[in-house]
Amino acid sequence: MAKRKKPEELRSQRWFGAQDLRSFGHRSRALQMGYTREDYKGKPVIAIVNTWSDVNHCHSHLRERAQEVKRGVWQAGGFPLEMPAISLAEVFQKPTTMMYRNFLAMETEELLRSYPVDGCVLMGGCDKTTPGLLMGAISMNLPAIYLPAGPMLRGNWRGKTLGSGSDVWKYWDELRAGNITDRDWREIEEGISRSPGTCMTMGTASTMTSVAEALGFSLPNASSIPAVDSNHSRMAEYSGRRIVEMVWEDLKPRDILSEKSFDNGIKVLMALGGSTNGLIHVIAMAGRAGIRIPLERFEEVGRHAPYLVNMRPSGKYLMEDFYYAGGLVGMLEGMRKLLDTDVLTCTGKTLGENIAGAMIHNPDVIRTPENPMQAEGGLVVLRGNLAPDGAVIKSTAADPKLLKHAGRAMVFDDYNDMAARFDDPNLDVDAGSVLVLRNAGPLGGPGMPEWGMLPIPKKLLKQGVRDMVRISDARMSGTSYGTCVLHVAPESWVGGPLALVKTGDIIELDVPGRKLTLKVSDAELAKRRAAWKPHPPKFQRGYGKIFAEHIKQANLGCDFDFLEGTTPTPEPEIH
Fold first, then answer.
1. Residue 18 DSSP class
2. Does the domain spanning 381-531 belong to CATH 3.50.30.80?
3. What is the pLDDT of residues 365-386, one digit of tens each?
C-alpha cells in the first residue's frame, strides 16, 4: 500500500499551519466566514471549481450539485471551498467557446496554484468546459476528480423524439425547403431542451465527458447519468468523498495519465462515434501531460477501434437510452479486449477493476466488437495538397455515396460572404458541387467556430438534396452531420492551401484513401501563393491579443504554445 500523507504534509498547511503573522491573517479570515479551526485543521482543503452560471443552460443544476459535493467532502473529513470559474456556455458565448477554452484552463490552473487547496473537484460538462478544466488540472497536478454535468432529457415533438443539434439542423432544412411551418418550428423550439444538462446526442459534451472517464478522471459511469437523475446527485456526493481520499493517497492527474490511457481515450472516442472536436481536445490534454499525440495516432488506433454505439447524429438513440443500456461502463466491458485495462484511475483501482461485471442491457444501443455498427472508428484523418497538416471527417455521419467524390468548388471567403449568398437562387451550384468556407480557423474565425456544417443552398434543398461535400478550416458541433471535411490545417488565415482555392477548381475527396486533393498544378498554386496577402490582426488588446499571438493550429490541439508540457511553475511564496 502506498504511503499516505500526514496532516502536516498537506499543501494547505503552508497557509493555515504556521505560527506567524500571515497565517494569523489566513485563520482569522476563515473565522470571519464562520468556519471554526476544527473545520480545516489537519484536513484536506478541497477546491470545488464550479462552472455554474446564470447564462449556462447546460450547468443550471451545478449550484445544487456543488452542495452535494460539499456534503461528501465533509463526510470524508475534508474542508470544501467552492470556487467559481468562467462558464463556457455554448450558443450564447461569441465568437465561440473554443476561443475561451484555454482561458478556463489558465484560470483553473491559477485558482489551484494560488489558493490553499490540496485537491479539487472539477464541475463542468458543456463542450469546451471538460478539456479546459482538465488541462488546467493536469498542468497544476494536484489530486483532481471530474464531475460531469450529465446529459439532458430527450426532446419531444408531437410524439417524435428530438435530439439536440441533430434535429435542429434537420428541421431547419425542412423549414427552409417549405416542408414544415413556422408553427411547427416554434413547437420544436419549445420541445427540444426539456431539462438541465448537456446535449443528449453524442455531441462534444458527452464525447468529452466519456473520454474523461475513460482517462480515469471520473467515477465509473459518471459520464452517462442524466443530469436530473437522482443517481447524478449521489455521484456528486461520492465524488466529494473520493477526492478527500485521493489527497491522502497523493493520487494526481499525471499519475494516471500515460500513452496507454490516451490510447484508451482514442478508442472510446471512436467507439462512441464521437465528436470531431475530440481530436483537438485529446491532443491538447495530452500535451499538458507531456505526451505528444500526432493526428496519425488517431488513424492508427481508429483502424482497430470499431464504432459501437447506435446514437445520434450517426445512429438512432440518445444518451438516456445509452445510460439505461449499460452506459459507458457497459460499453467498456464489452470492448475490454481492445483496451489497456491495467491503467490507473481516480478510484485508486485500474480501469479493468472499475468496469468488471458491467453489462450491456440493450444490444441495439451498445454493440460489441463482434457485431459493430462499423468495423472502423468513424473519425478519419485526411491529408493531401489541400490539407498538408491534416483534416478530419466523421465518416459515420456522412452520406456513403459522397465518401469518394470530385466536384467544382464554390468558395465563400468567410461566414458573412456565405450567409449573404447561399440562398441566392442564382448561386452557381448543383448537387455535385463542393462548398468551401475559409477564414474560419483558430485565427480566422477567430476561435475556430462551429461553422463547418455549411448550409445546403435553398434551391438544392427544394430539389431534395440533403447532403453535399463541404470543406472548411472550421469545426462543427458534435451534434452535426453530413459529409463535412473540417479542421483543414494549416488554416487559410495564415496562408494555408485553402486560401488559394478558386470557385470552379476541382476538389477530390477520397475517404477510403484518406486523401483530400485540389486538382490544380503546383505551378498554378505557386503563382496564387505569390499573390496572397496576409491579413491584419483582429485584436489589438486583451485576451484576444494573447490568443492571436500564441494559439497553435488544429492539428496541434489549439493550445497556447507557452502552456504545453510539464515544466513546473513555482509554488507561491506565503508572505
1. S
2. yes
3. 999 999 999 999 889 999 999 9
